[in-house]
Design a protein that fits this description.
InterPro entries: Oxoglu/Fe-dep_dioxygenase_dom, Pirin, Pirin_N_dom, RmlC-like_jellyroll, RmlC_Cupin_sf. Belongs to the pirin family. This is Pirin family protein. The protein has strands spanning about 5-10, 15-20, 25-30, 45-55, 60-65, 70-75, 80-85, 90, 95-100, 105-110, 120-125, 135-140, 150-155, 165, 170-180, 185, 190-205, 210, 215-225, 225-240. The protein is an all-beta fold and about 250 residues long. It has a single domain (about 5-240), classed as Jelly Rolls. The strands form three sheets. Strands 1, 13, 14, 15, 16, 17, 18, 19 and 20 form a nine-stranded mixed β-sheet that branches. It starts with 6 loop residues before the first strand and ends in a 6-residue tail after the last strand.
C-alpha cells in the first residue's frame, strides 16, 4: 500500500456545538437545530453526527422523519425505540446498532430506559432515492469481538456478503473498529472518509503528534487509506466511507 495522498482535517471534541436541556446533552459534529454554521452543514453524504446522552426515562418523544437513513450506535446504557412503521418496541444496548430507513415517512420515539441513562452516536445519510417503505432493524452486541473491524451498514456492492444492515445508499458504508491496545486498522480508500473516536485514543498515520481522543474526528478527502492505531487503553472508532457527496 502506498503512502496516504489525501487531505485530513481534524475536528476536536471541544469544538462541537452543544445542546443542553434537563434531559439531554448533545454534541453536534455538524450544524443542528439552533447551531447553524454554513461552512459545516455536512461532509460527503453525512448530514448529522450527534453524540447524545439522555437521563433515565427521558428522551425524544414521537416525531417524524422521511427520506433519511438513520444509524444509531449505543455506547453505554440502553436505548428504547418505538416506531409507527412496525408498532413494536426495540431496545439496543452497548455495542448494538440500530437502523431506521425513514422512507416515505415514519414517526418514532427514542428514550433511555427508566433503569439508567444512555449514551449513543446517531448518524444520518441521504438515501439514493426518495420514498419507499420505512424499515427498522437492530443488531445486538455479540456479533463481533473486540479487535474486529466490522461493516455495520452498507449499500456498497462489495459488502453484500458481510454487511449486518442494508443501507439504501449505494455510495456509503459505516464500519466500527474496536481496537485492542496498540492494534491497528487501515481506513478505507474513498473520496470522503469520516473517522470518529467514540471511545479511547488513537493516532493516524503521517500525523505525528496529533492524537485523536474521545469525541475527536478526522475528515479525509481523496485519501489513499491511512493506518489508525489504538492507544494504551484501546479505541472504538466509527468510520464512514463515502464515494459521493451532496450535490455531485
Amino acid at each position: 500500500m502506498g503512502a496516504p495522498t489525501g487531505h485530513v482535517t481534524l475536528y476536536r471534541a471541544g469544538s462541537r456545538a452543544r445542546t443542553e436541556t434537563g434531559w439531554l446533552d448533545s454534541r453536534h459534529s455538524f450544524s443542528a437545530g439552533a447551531h447553524y454554521d454554513p461552512a459545516n452543514t455536512h461532509f460527503g453524504l453525512l448530514l448529522l453526527h450527534n453524540e447524545d446522552r439522555l437521563v433515565p426515562g427521558r428522551g425524544y418523544d414521537e416525531h417524524p422523519h422521511r427520506d433519511t437513513e438513520i444509524l444509531t450506535w449505543v455506547l453505554d446504557g440502553e436505548l428504547e425505540h418505538r416506531d409507527s412503521a412496525t408498532g413494536r418496541t426495540a431496545r439496543v444496548g452497548p455495542g448494538g446498532v440500530q437502523y431506521l430507513g425513514a422512507g416515505s415517512g415514519v414517526r418514532h420515539s427514542e428514550h433511555a430506559t427508566p433503569a439508567g441513562g444512555v449514551r449513543f452516536v446517531q448518524m444520518w445519510v441521504v438515501p439514493d432515492e426518495p420514498g419507499g417503505d420505512p424499515r427498522h432493524l437492530v443488531c445486538a452486541a455479540g456479533a463481533w469481538a473486540r479487535g474486529d473491524t466490522v461493516v455495520l451498514a452498507s449499500g456498497l456492492g462489495r459488502h453484500r456478503e458481510e454487511t449486518l444492515l442494508p443501507l439504501r445508499q449505494r455510495a456509503a458504508a459505516l464500519s466500527v473498529a474496536r481496537l485492542a491496545p496498540g492494534s491497528a486498522t487501515v481506513l478505507p480508500t474513498a473520496p470522503f472518509v469520516h473517522a470518529f473516536v467514540a471511545r479511547g485514543v488513537a493516532t493516524l498515520e503521517d500525523l505525528t503528534g496529533d492524537e485523536l481522543g474521545t469525541g475527536d474526528a478526522a475528515r479525509l478527502v481523496d485519501d489513499g487509506g491511512r493506518r489508525v492505531t489504538a492507544g494504551p487503553e484501546g479505541a472504538e472508532i466509527l468510520v464512514w466511507e463515502m464515494h459521493a457527496a451532496l450535490g455531485w
